[in-house]
Amino acid sequence: MSKSTTERLSEYMAYRGINNNALTVAAELSVGQIGKAISNNSGINSSSIEKILYAYPELNAEWLLTGNGNMIKESSEPVNNRSEEKKGIPLIPIEAMAGYGQGDSQVMQYDINSGYKIPELEGKGVKYLIRVSGSSMYPKYSNGDLLACKPLKDLAFFQWGKPYVLDTEQGAIVKRLFPCDEDIECLECHSDNKTHYPPFKIPKSSVRAVAIVVGVIRLE
């Protein structure tokens, strides 16, 4: 039985080492669209296919749609991050969910806005910006601050005490990470606003992606 377009896309993502969120950002797709399509093995509309092929020009359209030919185009140029190259660093909107879980600042991906050209962040591996909403990381980060995030591939190494963005099963959060002495399979998450946001543990297995915060942009 031949594979579907969705299955071939999943195969390409595994080959490139990218997850649903990375592809969503690069191709400027609706949040959750790719994850839902892969989970249900449902079809992907032509408009989304065009965006994916534009974001990843090395991907062979014929192979993706029909399975014929090779996955990667012959003599294809290295894949560039279209958002960074043409539009600067993309801003991913976020908002806080009051009363949700531990009351933490949640990172919610809704849409990709125009990118920002920030010379000071060039060469630091920053792939996206998020806007803080909430007070759990105050006074380090205030409501409205833009955090410059560098995604990490190796989740086995953390700089303890540094601020990270964690994409978890219950949403994404911004926290300082520390080792959990009681359980090596967990991480201990700390807020800077310790009075109202006590530390809590999170299983490493529930963390789907990690980015370290390498800079902040603040307006008075």
From TrEMBL:
Origin: domain of life: Bacteria
Keyword set, alphabetical order: DNA-binding, Transcription, Transcription regulation
Keyword Disulfide bond set for record = no
Q: What start-end ranges are recorded for coiled-coil regions in this protein?
A: none
UniProt domain Peptidase S24/S26A/S26B/S26C: residue ranges: 97-214
Q: What is this protein's record name?
A: Helix-turn-helix transcriptional regulator
